[in-house]
Every structure is written in C-alpha cells, then in structure tokens.
Design brief:
The protein is mainly alpha-helical. About 70% of the residues lie in helices and about 0% in strands. The chain has one domain. Helix 1 crosses helix 15 and helix 7 crosses helix 8. Keywords: Membrane, Transmembrane, Transmembrane helix.
Length: about 450
C-alpha cells in the first residue's frame, strides 16, 4: 500500500514543499511492510490459477493444498486488505497534519496526489494487466476519506460496524437476486423437460441466468477458454483482464467504496488514539492481541468449516441458495477479520517495543517505505512468471507451490529494500509520484 508517511514541514516559505523523510514514524512503515508482503499471499493465486481452482481439493483434508488454503483464510484473507486500508487512512493524516498545523492548506496537494494514484491504478490494471489492482480504488476513496480527517476518532471508528452491517445487507440482496434468477431458471428447465413450448418470459429467464453464469459462475468450457486466454499473447491476456477491470473500477465501484472507506477511517481513529504510534502500554497491546485472537480465531475457524461443508464448489453453493435466502454466517466475516487484523498489529507493536527481531523490523520498515515500488514489483514478477507472454506457467503449478515463489519474493524485497534506501531517499515509483504531486523534480540520491 503505497502511501509515504513522512511528515512534511515547510521551513522556508509558505508554498507547499516536501520535506525529506522528516518525522517518519517507523512503526507505521513496518506495519505497511507487513501488509505489503502479506497481501501477496492472497494475490498470487489470481495471477497463477484458473477459475474455481479450489474445487478439486476444497474438502480433501489429506491434500496439502487444503491446509495451506486454510491457513491463508484463517490468518490472512481479508486481514491484509484491511491492514492496507487502515494504514492508508493513517497516512492521510500524516500527509496533511503538519501543513494544517502551520496554517497551510494541504487540500489541493493531497487531491493531486490521489489523482495521480488513480491514474497509476488505471495503468496498473490495463497496461500491466493486474485484475486485483488497489491503487485506483485507494486514489478514488482516499479523496472521500480526506473529508473526514478532522472528525473525532470515536465517530471515525463507528464506520466499521455500520459498513459491516450495510455490506451484509447488500450482499444478501445481491445473493437473493442471484437466487431468484436461479430458481426461475430451474423452473424453466423443469418445464422444458416436459416438452412444453417456452414463452417469451421463460426464454428471458434462461437468458438472464446465462448472463449470470457468464459474469460470475463460468462453466467448465468457459474456464478452459479463460485459461487459454491467460496462456496467450499480451493482447489475449488483455482481452480477458481489461473488461473485468473496467467492470470492477466503474460498474461495481459503488460496492467497493464502503469497506475501504470504513477501514481508512478506522486507521485515522487508531492513529489519533495512539494505537498506531506506540502510545499504548504493553499491557494494552497484549489485551488487544488476546481479545483479537481469542474471539476472532474461533469465529473465522467456524466460518471456514461452515463454508467448507456448504460451499466447497459452485454446485454446492447453488444447492445451498435454493433452500436458504440468507446466509447468516456471512455476518461473521467483517468482525473476525477486524479482530484478527488488530491482533496482528498489536503483536507487531509488542515485538517492536521489546526489541525482538530487530533486523527483520529494519527490513520491514524499508519494504514499507518503498511499498509502491514493491507492490508493482509483485505484478511484474508474477505476470512474467505466469502469463502467456512470460514463462507461461498459468494453471501449471499446485496451489501450495505458489508459496515457494512468495517466499522468494519476500526474501528478495526484504534484502533489496534496505540496500536501496542506503543510497536513495525513496523507491523509484515513490520518487516519481512525489515529483508529479509537487510538480517539480525531487531529491532522489542520498548525500
């Protein structure tokens, strides 16, 4: 998650000028580094695996893929994305606070920054062809979050439970819409099997379900087509990725705003409360960790088991919605991931405050300071390994094997990032973003 955390202080005149790494809060860089590396755990299957890749082993407890997937779901899925968004929200305050304390407006500078981030996101999705881009969304949603930066933390934090409930309602309505179309489709199929002639209404129901399948539930033939495209040339990969990216960035944008916005506001609240600045005592961080893991882990474990039983594949999921109009277990999701995410952060705080893993912390700090560059590096490496115009390894690896590559990328970035920052002030993309934001060339090489 590529937001710099340097507090920027103008020492010469009243025009907005960037300071060079002044008052950088190391622990926020470390947390950003954790989030950056952690998000690759969840992203890499979507670089490398075909649609519905979990189906063959989703209930096979004797398969190593099942257990690797279980660890990902229980400890990381949703938590790393939440952590990204939370640190981004704190970064908004860090970017603006010193300017505003000095009586200077940070508004236009911040919006320029977000506009450029949005454009970077569009390029990331449509030129580098990463369907899971977050830069575009953070640029757009960051402009909204900025408006709430002066709100009291207790009100900022209220966004999480409100959005969790709204999200559950929205997802339920979405599922009920799918369910309605599926039930109508089943009725038409039953009618068709009797030999009855289908009226216009029945034909429309068949067409509506076909559209749902095409967009959300590809059948085996469509999966083969999609896989062939991903193993093809750059233009073939683009023909598969770009339409989906456009849908996500525009057609479904309204559904993506609320979760990220609530988590950015939570990050602002936690920064103001001192949770993200090491202002809490060890006892407070330990209490947060034990509550987070003590409540969150049983909840997510129950949810994982429930989904393994009732939603192991598309067919089972469709059978479930035939008889269930609401999946109440889905209510658990947002609460368990926030609890576990908070516990993860509290654990990092405790380790850092007690001087544990100092070399690793130094490397994580460097990864966090160059997070924009490292995030794009994930895409470059993974696309060149898996996509057809690279090494063409798409749909060739076992799920668990992907994490050997993840470990390699982690080691590379943990070693390279601190070495880079010994010579340069910023990562190359951080520097470019900074130049574009301020409209002038910025220092790059350390003196």
């Amino acid at each position: 998650m590529p937001l710099e955390t340097s507090s920027e202080i103008n020492l010469v005149d009243n025009s907005p000028k960037p300071a060079i790494l002044v008052n950088r809060i190391d622990i926020i860089d470390i947390i950003r580094g954790v989030a950056l590396l952690g998000i690759l755990l969840l992203n890499i299957p979507y670089f490398a695996m075909e649609d519905s890749f979990t189906d063959p082993w989703s209930q096979d407890t004797g398969n190593v893929n099942f257990w690797v997937h279980a660890v990902n779901i229980i400890f990381f899925e949703g938590k790393m994305r939440a952590l990204f968004s939370m640190v981004f929200g704190a970064g908004i305050l860090l970017f603006t606070m010193n300017k505003e304390k000095a009586g200077k407006s940070a508004t236009w500078l911040f919006y320029k920054r977000m506009i450029w981030l949005t454009l970077f996101g569009l390029a990331h999705a449509h030129l580098l062809l990463w369907l899971g881009d977050i830069l575009y969304f953070y640029g757009v949603i960051g402009m909204i979050a900025f408006l709430f930066r002066k709100m009291k933390p207790k009100y900022l934090a209220m966004g999480v439970p409100i959005v969790a409930i709204i999200g559950f309602v929205a997802n339920t309505l979405f599922m009920q819409n799918i369910r309605s179309k599926y039930l109508e489709y089943k009725e038409v199929i039953t009618l068709q099997e009797t030999g009855a002639e289908l009226a216009e209404k029945e034909l429309a129901a068949l067409e509506a379900w076909k559209e749902v399948q095409k967009e959300f539930i590809p059948d085996k033939d469509q999966v083969k087509i999609n896989t062939a495209l991903m193993k093809g040339s750059y233009s073939e990969v683009a023909s598969y990725i770009r339409p989906k990216a456009i849908d996500g960035q525009f057609k479904y944008l309204i559904f993506s705003i609320w979760d990220m916005l609530a988590l950015m506001l939570l990050g602002m609240a936690l920064y103001k409360w001192g949770f993200l600045t090491l202002a809490w005592t060890d006892a407070q961080y330990r209490k947060t960790m034990w509550i987070g893991y003590g409540v969150g882990l049983p909840l997510v474990t129950f949810s994982f088991i429930y989904n393994t039983i009732y939603f192991p594949n598309v067919e089972a999921g469709l059978a479930y919605i035939e008889t269930h109009s609401i999946n109440w277990v889905a209510l658990i999701y947002d609460f368990q991931r926030i609890l576990i995410m908070m516990a993860h952060v509290a654990l990092v705080m405790i380790l850092y405050k007690n001087g544990v893993f100092t070399r690793l912390m130094d490397s994580l700090r460097a990864v966090g300071q160059t997070a924009f560059t490292n995030y794009i590096m994930h895409t470059v490496i993974c696309s060149l390994v898996f996509f057809g115009y690279g090494l063409n390894q798409f749909a060739e690896w076992e799920y668990y094997q992907l994490y050997l590559l993840v470990a390699g990328i982690w080691m590379f970035q943990l070693l390279l990032s601190p070495i880079w920052l010994k010579k340069y002030l910023f990562g190359p993309l951080e520097w470019l973003w900074r130049c574009l934001t301020y409209g002038r060339m910025q220092p790059f090489v350390r003196k």
